[in-house]
């Protein structure tokens, strides 16, 4: 299922903007594999370009290591209920070295956060003054 | 605002289960400060006990360091729109050493994930077979 | 805060449609109190009328008792992170006889459901054939 | 699809902790059927144990009857958009005696709550002082 | 998958209320096609009637044109992560004349809104007095 | 409340990147008013720059008019439960000419979409083949 077509490599090659992004994805990731998100987004070349440019920058190693960034990405994706995103970023986290022990703790934190978020919202707990930044 | 009362230390002292949890929070965190979440949850002693016991276990150092766990916690909390949780866990992350540079990258990942989750859902991208675990 | 004005009784009296709904709310609930949701919705008389008419019908006693309906309402509201709704329907549930023991169990179920929802989504568990209705 | 393997009974038997939980699920529910959630969670024995222990306790009969608890569970699951959870808990509610008439009213409340939550958030209705608990 | 049966035309014909709604959908939309949402909802005749009556009224041309209404509908559906709704309303928007250029901009706004919503929630930005309506 | 400081004009003037964005916001919007979102984001100059650059581009007039874009923005924001965003974009929509009649219909669509999304998810309606794009 999809609400747009997924571009094949042949179709991607016909639009120079799409072709350039696909080439850069392949070079950056050092693999020929282009996953479906980019093939779907390729129906909108401007959005493809701006999304890939930003993603490459945001996910690059920096003050946070790439695996930590993937875990944060999965946390957002799971909470948003995005099935595709959960699949793709879990695969990415494993490719970046996620161990079994880390995955176990990660899942435990995900579940705990969802639970206490729900309780806080049910109880409508007021923010402690100690947690507020002076503005 | 709140949908339940927040227990004062005097009130907490009257219920041995609540008193024990409050004492353990203070000992574990090495501070006298008990934040409002626990004071609200204290109206339900069984829930207070089980939540604190699980939280202490889940957030302890392990295969993932405490700061990484806080970042995952914030990611879930922000995506769930939990204002109290965003405040309390951001404060906790800073107390655990979150640097300015890390916070900048963390926010960038949070925003990027929300954006691509939304695009994936709008496009209804099918999961690549490469991302699926054989079951 | 609000994105629309909240109508006073004087202002409500000027529009016959709004006046009629306010009168019906008071008669149905046997109280003079009109809560802010209706005062805000009163800026849109058609929406006020259709929402009140439907709510009165849906929340009336039937195969499910009124308290059970309120608990379901709170469950949706808390999961949606709707602060006003959590406050108003928790107050309504208490007015309809919610006991302390029921509230404790209700909160425990709310938290448990949020936690297992999150784990299911993280693990992307496929639906068992046993749970599917033949179509 | 799934992001982890689903353990077969043979695999479950190899880990004493998993085997014990599976045996307890079967005894508690008086059926040989183990649904996929537990087979997926079985890849993380500690999480399996703690989740099952808590679920069994929370969903046991108490001040709220088991059917009411299932309806609350479905309400959270549907609002979270958890497909698996909607399927499994709807099946559970029916097994616990949910009638056609109750299901009709339940769905009506679910839809109504979602609608008024959305309107309240759009209008940003301020909480009435009458709904606030004195803290 | 579904949690209820999808009614065939033969089954729909057996209940006069369902038959009347199906006939009205066909007349209003000028097509014989009845999509699965209505076939599923037909298991609950009262909910089918009230939902269709309200939808027909709300989506009719008025101060906002039908295409704009569909885009708003998709925006809510995607943000709620409703796969069926994203599919059905995207198809409806295209049937109502959505152009390629409009779709590109629509997707860009969807992604941008999700991103800034997330940043606002992470930063817990207080509402400017200028944005508040005097109440 | 906020989890970061809100930069004053004096503080913004000290960082050339922030000063440049603030100047561009003022020039683009033809007003001296800088709302709190930008003052909070200014604590992260890179994120401020990239967010503003993208927002200015995405919200510019194009195949969709600015008011339609604001309505889509509000729809996402309300569904995400973002209070600040609901306030700021409702104000923006009114500044761009949203009429009372349009606002009434907009709210009706928002509520209707939330309701049918919820019903679709509860019923787990399968996507009709007619709504799927051939891939």
TrEMBL record, chains A, B, C, D, E, F:
The keyword Oxidoreductase applies. InterPro entries: AhpD-like (IPR029032), AhpD_core (IPR004675), CMD-like (IPR003779). Keywords: Oxidoreductase, Peroxidase. Gene3D superfamilies: AhpD-like (1.20.1290.10). It comes from Cereibacter azotoformans. One of its GO terms (molecular function) is peroxiredoxin activity. Residues 45-125 form the Carboxymuconolactone decarboxylase-like domain. PANTHER family: CARBOXYMUCONOLACTONE DECARBOXYLASE-LIKE DOMAIN-CONTAINING PROTEIN (PTHR35446:SF2), SI:CH211-175M2.5 (PTHR35446). This is AhpD family alkylhydroperoxidase. The keyword Metal-binding does not apply.
